[in-house]
UniProtKB/TrEMBL annotation:
GO molecular function: protein C-terminal S-isoprenylcysteine carboxyl O-methyltransferase activity
Gene Ontology annotations for the cellular component aspect, listed alphabetically: endoplasmic reticulum membrane
Name of protein: Protein-S-isoprenylcysteine O-methyltransferase
Keywords of the record: Endoplasmic reticulum, Membrane, Methyltransferase, S-adenosyl-L-methionine, Transferase, Transmembrane, Transmembrane helix
Enzyme Commission number: 2.1.1.100
Chief location bin: endoplasmic reticulum
This protein's record includes keyword Transmembrane: yes
Compartmental location: Endoplasmic reticulum membrane; Membrane
EC main group: transferase
Length: 271
């Protein structure tokens, strides 16, 4: 049953790519399945899951179809694509490793008011620049290329780390150790102790550089750094409780967050 939810997200992506009337029948079929299986909450509805990835992919496609091929248009198209990749991949990886807890919020679309606000402000800053004289001052190809580079690395770290950690990775920080929880120290986790957070950080700042959003680039940099400082501080405290000396010796060998910049976050170092 849980696998159907994971599959629903895939179905949403596929039907938006092939974009045919079949989509209506498939979504209607999922709705029927939901009604027959009497799901207790809307959060766990396969129709909602399929519709969400369908909507994210369709908005991206519309962007690619109707936005111009100028610098601002391309940066906006890529921003939509990047948001779509981020949220759909969050759902797909997490529902694959934790099918029993897959639900609408696994897309992380509604994970905090601050995040929603930040995304809205980024669109507003992008739009305001169009209304002022000489918008080309802000939309430039160099920023676009640097942004794309940072965003690609961000996606690579975020998705790679989630797959690397497998079932040990959960969106919510675990307060008590599960029997199956093991310490991951290889692959991405050899580069730094928090590769998925590093990926998220690079992705969020990279998207704003890509858009040429000066205010949001600085704002996202400061707020994400602040957010991950607090989160990592607490997470490392729990990991020390779970794994003790194993975590201590891992932290001695591996950078905390940004490789080569050990003091990037204001989090106390474990030694
Ligand atoms: C949202 S994930 C973030 C993982 C990690 N901080 C990162 O950035 O890739 C949070 C969960 O991952 C677990 N976790 C973090 N680092 C881990 C590691 N090296 N091995 C196993 N589990 C880990 C924590 O216990 C927590 O419940």
């Amino acid at each position: 049953m849980e696998r159907i939810l994971c599959l629903s997200s895939f179905i949403g992506v596929i039907i938006s790519i092939f974009n045919s009337y079949l989509a209506i029948f498939i979504l209607a079929g999922l709705l029927l399945f939901d009604l027959l299986s009497l799901k207790p909450t809307i959060e766990k509805s396969s129709t909602l899951i399929a519709f969400t990835s369908f909507a994210l992919c369709t908005i991206t496609q519309l962007g690619f179809e109707y936005l111009p091929d100028s610098c601002w248009g391309i940066s906006l198209k890529l921003y939509l694509l990047s948001l779509c990749i981020f949220h759909v991949s969050e759902f797909l990886t997490q529902s694959y490793f934790h099918p029993q807890s897959a639900k609408f919020s696994t897309y992380l679309l509604n994970h905090s008011r601050e995040y929603e606000l930040a995304i809205i402000i980024s669109f507003i800053e992008h739009a305001i620049k169009l209304a002022i004289p000489f918008p080309e001052m802000f939309y430039n190809w160099l920023a676009l290329c640097i942004g794309i580079f940072v965003v690609v690395i961000g996606h690579f770290f975020r998705i790679g780390a989630e797959i690397n950690a497998g079932s040990n990775f959960t969106h919510l920080i675990q307060n008590s150790k599960k029997e199956t929880h093991t310490l991951v120290t290889s692959g991405f986790y050899k580069i730094c102790r928090h590769p998925s957070y590093l990926g998220w950080f690079l992705w969020s700042v990279g998207t704003q550089i890509m858009l040429g959003n000066i205010i949001c680039s600085i704002g996202f940099f400061i707020t994400s750094r602040q957010f991950f400082s607090g989160r990592i501080y607490y997470e490392e405290y729990t990991l020390l409780e779970f794994f003790g000396t194993e975590y201590l010796s891992y932290s001695k060998k591996t950078s905390q967050f940004m490789p080569f910049f050990d003091n990037f976050l204001n989090t106390p170092k474990i030694t």
